[in-house]
């Protein structure tokens, strides 16, 4: 419930994603041609080397070298069409193909709108909080390969310690969603800290979920106060 003077608005907990210009989204490539749900035009892609030039027929033919069906990407909403479909772009090197990590899908209404949706958390992993309800959790990269234009993926084995952090974060996000708490960097981090006394698998037990989210909620209230 949101109140502005005498106006009371009620937001549904489960909603269909309605794109807005500037939104950060995480999505899966369904076709390497004109898409139906959202469109990523070749002209809106940052080519390897970061080249800003007119796209050629060779670029179009080589697109499958960069993106294929099933690939996950992060992108920004460039425009919204009258039928609700969105046009995306990946012109910044912070966007592009996603490599090794874990995808969690939640209701878009539970993702809090912030100035940035890319977060390197101090616990040792990073998250992309897609406005469309797709959350990507991945090992924090040591450095960004700018020459690749956001299309290379690191396929080196992920250390067990990183996998444990990612798994714990994933279960914490599931707990927050189950208890209907908004997702943003601080709520996720507080929940992660509250979960540390518990085994990763135990976080999904209803009584543990309730306990750690209650502690998270109290910390957030203390922060606001």
Automatic annotation (TrEMBL):
<dbReference type="Pfam" id="PF21266">
    <property type="entry name" value="S1_RRP4"/>
</dbReference>
<dbReference type="InterPro" id="IPR012340">
    <property type="entry name" value="NA-bd_OB-fold"/>
</dbReference>
<keyword id="KW-0271">Exosome</keyword>
<dbReference type="InterPro" id="IPR026699">
    <property type="entry name" value="Exosome_RNA_bind1/RRP40/RRP4"/>
</dbReference>
<dbReference type="GO" id="GO:0034475">
    <property type="term" value="P:U4 snRNA 3'-end processing"/>
</dbReference>
<feature type="domain" description="RRP4 S1">
    <location>
        <begin position="16"/>
        <end position="79"/>
    </location>
</feature>
<dbReference type="InterPro" id="IPR048565">
    <property type="entry name" value="S1_RRP4"/>
</dbReference>
<dbReference type="InterPro" id="IPR004088">
    <property type="entry name" value="KH_dom_type_1"/>
</dbReference>
<dbReference type="GO" id="GO:0000176">
    <property type="term" value="C:nuclear exosome (RNase complex)"/>
</dbReference>
<keyword id="KW-0694">RNA-binding</keyword>
<dbReference type="GO" id="GO:0003723">
    <property type="term" value="F:RNA binding"/>
</dbReference>
<dbReference type="GO" id="GO:0071034">
    <property type="term" value="P:CUT catabolic process"/>
</dbReference>
<feature type="domain" description="K Homology">
    <location>
        <begin position="101"/>
        <end position="142"/>
    </location>
</feature>
<comment type="similarity">
    <text>Belongs to the RRP4 family.</text>
</comment>
<protein>
    <submittedName>
        <fullName>Exosome complex component RRP4</fullName>
    </submittedName>
</protein>
<dbReference type="GO" id="GO:0071038">
    <property type="term" value="P:TRAMP-dependent tRNA surveillance pathway"/>
</dbReference>
<dbReference type="InterPro" id="IPR036612">
    <property type="entry name" value="KH_dom_type_1_sf"/>
</dbReference>
<dbReference type="GO" id="GO:0000467">
    <property type="term" value="P:exonucleolytic trimming to generate mature 3'-end of 5.8S rRNA from tricistronic rRNA transcript (SSU-rRNA, 5.8S rRNA, LSU-rRNA)"/>
</dbReference>
<dbReference type="GO" id="GO:0000177">
    <property type="term" value="C:cytoplasmic exosome (RNase complex)"/>
</dbReference>
<dbReference type="GO" id="GO:0071035">
    <property type="term" value="P:nuclear polyadenylation-dependent rRNA catabolic process"/>
</dbReference>
<dbReference type="Pfam" id="PF15985">
    <property type="entry name" value="KH_6"/>
</dbReference>
<dbReference type="GO" id="GO:0071051">
    <property type="term" value="P:poly(A)-dependent snoRNA 3'-end processing"/>
</dbReference>
């Amino acid at each position: 419930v949101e109140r502005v003077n005498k106006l009371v608005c009620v937001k549904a907990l489960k909603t269909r994603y309605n794109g807005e210009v500037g939104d950060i989204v995480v999505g899966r490539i369904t076709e390497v041609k004109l898409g139906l749900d959202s469109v990523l035009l070749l002209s809106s892609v940052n080519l390897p080397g970061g080249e800003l030039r007119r796209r050629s027929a060779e670029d179009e033919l080589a697109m499958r070298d960069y993106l294929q069906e099933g690939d996950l990407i992060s992108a920004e909403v460039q425009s919204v069409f009258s039928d609700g479909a969105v046009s995306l772009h990946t012109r910044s090197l912070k966007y592009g193909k996603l490599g090794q990590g874990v995808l969690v899908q939640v209701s878009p209404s539970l993702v809090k709108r912030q100035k940035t949706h890319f977060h390197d958390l101090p616990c040792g992993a990073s998250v992309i909080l897609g406005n469309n309800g797709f959350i990507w959790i991945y090992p924090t990269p040591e450095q960004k390969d700018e020459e690749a234009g956001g299309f290379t993926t690191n396929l080196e084995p992920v250390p067990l310690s990183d996998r444990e952090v990612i798994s714990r974060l994933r279960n914490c996000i599931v707990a927050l969603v189950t208890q209907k708490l908004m997702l943003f960097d601080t709520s996720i981090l507080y929940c992660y800290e509250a979960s540390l006394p518990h085994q990763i698998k135990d976080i999904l037990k209803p009584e543990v979920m309730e306990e750690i989210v209650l502690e998270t909620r109290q910390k957030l209230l203390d922060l606001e106060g």
